[in-house]
Design a protein that fits this description.
This protein is mainly α and 300 residues long. It has 11 helices and no strands.
Length: 300
């Protein structure tokens, strides 16, 4: 099996990043071409691949030609096409999470209620997926990946150094750190969603330099993923909450379901705050100095 492209101390940074970008797009292409995959799997995998790609594009934006902004805009527009389908599945995941995580609370929802809610959510998911993922959408993603691969083959990243890259990593780190709530107990869903977006960018960008120091890098990426997961589950519960609003599919069960959702959201906020405090403890300048020192030590 061919070795996956990666940044390695002592080797040209720009060439490695160009290879990483090409490999990401090749993986996305293979996902789309694999007709044996269930549509739900394709949607999940292609969304993940596009998040990695967008995080890389954002990090490299100062070093790319003008076309990079078009690549970013088009990738964002394509990703949004799949958000509705993903939100429907997120609501189902959040419902299961709510039921399982509040089993110790006096039952407010009867078995009949649970069955009715689940059927409503499954019908909503099927409806959204049927509208969102079809051959036209698959082709749009395929066309984008073909065009992006062409641009990547013409990137001129040879002058790029790790110091340049460290500056961009530190900028993403700074944005994520600034998005941390001052008081997690009163943070709005929008604020936490913005934080999660920043954490996702940071997580995928740090994954790029993980091979430089595998043990420390893996711990860091795992912590970022842990924070992302907890914020993601909170966000899934918020999606479920919106479906209980007036005239929405779960409105008849709002009075019984909403208190359970609130309890479950609290279960994720406290551990998320602890992980975030560890992950973003140092100032951005100190973070940059540390990753540069580690890179230089490995290169030596």
């Amino acid at each position: 099996m061919d070795e996956q492209p990666a940044l390695k101390p002592g080797r040209p940074v720009g060439d490695a990043l160009q290879s990483v970008a090409a490999h990401l797009l090749l993986q996305a292409h293979d996902i789309l071409e694999d007709r044996s995959l269930d549509d739900k799997v394709v949607v999940h995998d292609i969304r993940r691949a596009m998040k990695q790609w967008r995080a890389l594009l954002k990090m490299l934006s100062p070093f790319l030609a003008e076309q990079h902004q078009t690549l970013r805009d088009d990738a964002r527009a394509l990703a949004r096409k799949l958000t509705v389908a993903r939100d429907a599945q997120s609501a189902i995941d959040a419902f299961h999470d709510t039921v399982e995580g509040t089993y110790h609370v006096p039952p407010a929802l009867t078995p009949q209620n649970l069955i009715a809610i689940y059927r409503r959510l499954e019908a909503l998911r099927a409806e959204k997926e049927a509208k969102i993922w079809d051959e036209e959408t698959r082709q749009q993603f395929s066309d984008y990946i073909t065009a992006a691969s062409y641009y990547v083959s013409h990137w001129a990243l040879h002058p790029l150094t790790f110091a340049d890259l460290a500056g961009r990593l530190a900028e993403t780190y700074r944005r994520a750190r600034q998005a941390l709530p001052k008081d997690w107990s009163v943070a709005s869903p929008d604020d936490l969603h913005e934080l999660r977006r920043r954490v996702v960018e940071h997580r995928y960008q740090m994954e790029l330099i993980e091979p430089a120091w595998p043990r420390l890098g893996r711990i860091w990426v795992d912590e970022a993923q842990r924070l992302r997961n907890r914020l993601g589950r909170y966000q899934d519960l918020h999606v479920l909450t919106l479906l209980t609003m007036p005239h929405q599919p779960l409105a008849p069960w709002r009075a019984k379901l909403l208190p359970l959702i609130v309890l479950r959201q609290a279960d994720y906020l406290k551990p998320a705050a602890r992980v975030a405090a560890r992950l973003f403890a140092e100032p951005p300048k100190a973070f940059r100095r540390r990753i540069e020192a580690l890179w230089d030590a490995q290169a030596a």
